## 1
Amino acid sequence: DTAVSQTPKYLVTQMGNDKSIKCEQNLGHDTMYWYKQDSKKFLKIMFSYNNKELIINETVPNRFSPKSPDKAHLNLHINSLELGDSAVYFCASSHGDRRGPQHFGDGTRLSIL
Amino acid sequence: AQKVTQAQTEISVVEKEDVTLDCVYETRDTTYYLFWYKQPPSGELVFLIRRNSFDEQNEISGRYSWNFQKSTSSFNFTITASQVVDSAVYFCALRLLRGGSEKLVFGKGTKLTVNP
C-alpha cells in the first residue's frame, strides 16, 4: 500500500564509499524528485525527473547521479561519499501535469563516519 | 527572489491552546501554489494542504485552518485546541514551475511542541 517507498531507511557508511538509495512509487505519477534535508531540517530539491528525463538539477555535485529506469523508479547513486553528505534524503513524486501535491517517501537517513 | 520565510523557529504551547504558524512568501510568478507539510518526530513528510494563487478563500479542515492573503503574501496555518499529537515540524512551501517540471521551495520550518 505504500505510495512512495525508499530503501534503505538508514545507511551508515564510511567516507569515500559509493552508495545507492532506491525509490519506487505506485501512484502512477510520471514525475519524481530527490530532496535533501540537512541537519538543520532545511529541505532543498536536488533533482527532478519527468518520464525518465532529467528536468531539474540544482547544482548538485556530480558525485550524485540519479537514474530513472522507468517512470515508477528514481534511484540516487552517490560516489566518494563525504562527511557533508550526511543528511536525510527524500524521494517524492507527483503528476507531471501538476495535478495534486508531491507525495514524499519516508526518507533515507545517510550517516557518514 | 523566490522564497518562503517562516519566522517562528520554535513554538511551545500547552494542550488545548490555539496556535498560528506564520508563512510569508515571495515570488515573481503570477500563478503559483502554496503548501503546508507536517514532519512528525518519526520523520516522514505529510501533505496537509495545497492552495493556488487564484483562490483566496480560507480553508478549514477539522482543527486546522489556513488563511491565505495575497495582499500580504502570507499563508498562515492555525491549529485550534492543539493536541500533543500535533507536535511536529511544519513546513510551508512554494511550488515553482521550471522547464516542464516543478520544484518545491521550502521555508525553514517551525517546530511546534504541544505540552500536556
Note: The radius of gyration of chain B is 14 Å.
## 2
Amino acid sequence: NAGVTQTPKFRILKIGQSMTLQCAQDMNHNYMYWYRQDPGMGLKLIYYSVGAGITDKGEVPNGYNVSRSTTEDFPLRLELAAPSQTSVYFCASSYPGTGISEQYFGSGTRLTVT
Amino acid sequence: GEDVEQSLFLSVREGDSSVINCTYTDSSSTYLYWYKQEPGAGLQLLTYIFSNMDMKQDQRLTVLLNKKDKHLSLRIADTQTGDSAIYFCADSGTYKYIFGTGTRLKVLA
C-alpha cells in the first residue's frame, strides 16, 4: 500500500551543493510530476513526465533537472543549490484516462539551503 | 496563462459552515477539483465536479460551480476541528493541473 514514496523527508544543503530528491510510485502510473510549495504561493510545477523517457518543463524548471528511465522512478536533481530553492517539494503521479485524473502525492521533502 | 485564485485564510467556529472560494481563468477544463492538505502531508483528493454540473453534494461537502463567472466554491457543513487544513482548488488541463494558492482553514473550538 505504498503509493508515492519520497526520500529524504528533510535535508539541509549548503549553497552550491548538489542533491537528488527521490520519488518512486508503485501504481504503474504513466504521469509523474514534481512541484514545489512555498507559503502563500500554492504549488508550482517544476517538471513532469508522461512516460518513461519523456520529460518536459513546467512553470519553474530553472535550477532543476529530471530523468525518467523507468515508469516507477522520477528523481529530481538540484545541481547548484541556491537559497531560492528552499521549499517543500512534492512528487505526484496520475493515470491518464477519459475520466477524472486524480493526482496521488508523496509526503514531501522539506529542503533548506543556507 | 491559466490562473487559479483563492483567498489565503478562513477561520470558522466548530459546528458552523465553511465556504472556500476559487476563481479560475481556463474555461476548457473537463473537471475541477478540491484537494486537502493536512499538516506535514501531501495533498489528497477531496472531491471534484464535472464541468457541465452546477452542484455536487458528497456528505458534508457541497461543491458549487458557476461557469459563467468561472467561480468554484466548497462548502463544508458542520465544520469540525479535524477539517483544519489547507484546501486547494485545481483546474485540470490535458495532463497538468493548475493549483490555486490554497486556503488555510482554521476551526476554532
Note: The two ends of chain A are 36 Å apart (CA to CA).
